[in-house]
Write a structure and sequence with these properties.
With 144 residues, the protein is of the alpha/beta class. It has a single domain, classed as NAD(P)-binding Rossmann-like Domain (Rossmann fold, 3-Layer(aba) Sandwich), CATH 3.40.50.720. Helix content is 34%, strand content 17%. It is built from 5 helices and 7 strands; from the N terminus they run H-E-H-E-E-E-E-H-E-H-E-H. The longest helix has 11 residues.
Length: 144
């Protein structure tokens, strides 16, 4: 399978601004397994003071937070959606973010690119980041 290039992407200055504004991060595909990247990233972001919201098909709690089955189920505002799902799932994720109306940042993790979904998110007023890790980018901003 060919790897798509992220032609729709925020730059480093926008990413710095994103982390200055974001408080609540819904993490799609947050695994309860501590060995999985989604778990490590969420644990790091939580330790850095962000409110993480697990979105996962199973479990009741992950990292001490209530698990929701979908973005639509989350009953409070979400600033960022951090996506650990296959690129083909991002079209539906963009739809869910647009339907919520409160998501400011559509972020697809390392190795995940869907330019069509990212462009739709941008067209709806969100910042779009693809093929980047929230943990790596935040740590870099902090000089870690």
């Amino acid at each position: 399978m060919e790897c798509e290039f992220p032609s729709v992407n925020s730059n480093k200055q926008e990413i710095e601004k994103i982390f200055g504004e974001v408080k609540t991060i819904a993490i799609l595909g947050l695994s309860p397994n501590p060995e999985k990247p989604s778990h490590r990233v969420a644990k790091y972001l939580q330790a850095e003071g962000f409110k993480i919201v697990p979105v996962y098909p199973k479990e009741e709690t992950i990292l001490g937070e209530k698990v929701y089955r979908s973005l639509a189920e989350i009953p409070f505002p979400v600033d960022m959606v951090d996506i650990f799902r296959a690129a083909k799932a991002l079209d539906a994720v963009a739809d869910a973010c647009i339907a919520r109306g409160d998501v400011k940042v559509f972020w697809a993790q390392l190795g995940i690119v869907n330019n069509t979904a990212a462009q739709r998110a941008k067209d709806a007023g969100m910042k779009a980041v693809q093929n980047m890790c929230t943990m790596i980018e935040y740590a870099a901003l902090k000089g870690e």
